[in-house]
Write a structure and sequence with these properties.
The protein is built from four helices and ten strands, in the order βαββββαβββαββα. With 158 residues, it is of the alpha+beta class. The strands form three sheets. The protein has a four-stranded mixed beta sheet with strand order 1-6-8-2, sandwiched between helices. It has a four-stranded antiparallel beta sheet with strand order 7-5-9-10, with no helix packed on it. Strands 3-4 form a two-stranded antiparallel sheet. The longest helix is centred in the last third of the chain and has 18 residues. The protein starts with a strand and ends in a 7-residue tail after the last helix.
Length: 158
């Protein structure tokens, strides 16, 4: 009932939840977070797409490590993390985090922990595609706010 995937294809959040919870009576709460590609404007140029790249093998290993850490911190009955790579256009899914627990507090906290640490430690990179931009796309830089959000949980076990 725990797992991670990195894939180019879209995912169905409802199907992921159903697969995790079907036939289970030990689950009292399921929390999901869906990260979507948003259309924004930078320097007057709209975002056409994000190109997400990852380090194959290492990305999955880091995602599994973070999920295992969440399992040591909260009483989880299940958890899934799905992250896409490739060309993603505004409105498309990027990431899904699903946590299940007997209690809502643990499911909420674990989902937030997972997302905070995925943003900062999983090896994914984003490049923006903006038609009319002077360069061939700008890499999205890490944000200090994301680092701060992850650090509030303390360092995960190595």
């Amino acid at each position: 009932m725990f797992g991670v995937r990195v894939q180019a294809e879209d995912f169905d959040a409802a199907a992921e939840i159903a697969a995790l919870a079907q036939g289970r009576t030990d689950i009292g709460a399921v929390v999901t977070f869906s990260g979507l590609c948003r259309a924004d404007v930078k320097d007057g140029l709209p975002l056409a797409a994000l190109h997400l790249e990852h380090y194959p093998g290492m990305a999955e290993a880091e995602m599994e490590r973070i999920l295992d850490e969440a399992r040591t911190r909260w009483p989880l009955s299940g958890g899934r993390v799905v992250h896409r790579f490739g060309r993603i256009v505004p409105g498309d899914n990027i990431v899904l985090v699903v946590t299940a627990s007997p209690h809502r507090g643990a499911a909420f906290a674990a989902a937030e922990f997972l997302m905070d640490w995925l943003k900062t430690s999983a090896p994914f990179w984003k490049k923006e595609e903006r038609p009319g931009a002077a360069d061939d796309g700008a890499w999205v830089e890490a944000k200090e706010a994301d680092d701060d959000a992850a650090l509030r949980w303390g360092s995960p076990s190595a």
